[in-house]
Specification:
This protein is an all-alpha fold and 165 residues long. 96% of the residues lie in helices and 0% in strands.
Length: 165
């Protein structure tokens, strides 16, 4: 009977260790989920920031295009004066450079936004996967708890029987 009690104690000890391990893994998974949720929030803020920056750059491009159009109009109207024409030509060149820079910035910002969207999608899939894994660990933990409780009840029953002898 002592060996049977030892086996039961050993089984209960094993079940406790398994339950503690399952609990630790569940807590670790929850920690990972929280970290990923924070990453997603950060990426969403970055997307919002880049969208705002993109809007500002588009506005700047429109402004520069209007300035370029105005400068070209002024250049045509001011053909009578070479010095005025040279000045306007320099301004047109400068505005074209600024427009090219703004266009380049717009393309880069759009690409960054696209990459951020892809990353956000990846993080969302990762969070979903981790939540499913966490649910699985929670089910395992619940099963282990049920098994533990059954073993505990069996041990108590055996103890009662042994005390009856």
């Amino acid at each position: 009977m002592a060996t049977m009690m030892d086996k039961l104690k050993e089984r209960i000890s094993t079940l406790r260790l398994e339950a503690e391990s399952a609990q630790d893994k569940a807590e670790e998974a929850m920690s990972k989920v929280k970290t990923l949720e924070q990453d997603i929030m950060s990426k969403e803020q970055e997307i919002t920031s880049l969208s705002h920056k993109n809007t500002l750059l588009e506005t700047e491009v429109e402004k520069l295009e209007k300035q370029l159009s105005d400068a070209k109009s002024a250049a045509e109207d001011g053909a009578a004066s070479n010095s005025a024409n040279e000045s306007l030509s320099k301004k047109v060149s400068q505005l074209e450079e600024e427009l090219e820079t703004a266009d380049k910035n717009l393309r880069e910002t759009t690409e960054k936004l696209r990459v951020t969207d892809v990353k956000a999608d990846q993080y969302e899939r990762k969070v979903t996967s981790l939540e499913a894994e966490c649910d699985s660990w929670e089910k395992k933990f619940e099963e282990m708890s049920v098994n533990y409780n059954k073993a505990k009840e069996e041990l108590e029953e055996i103890n009662k029987q042994l005390e009856a002898f």
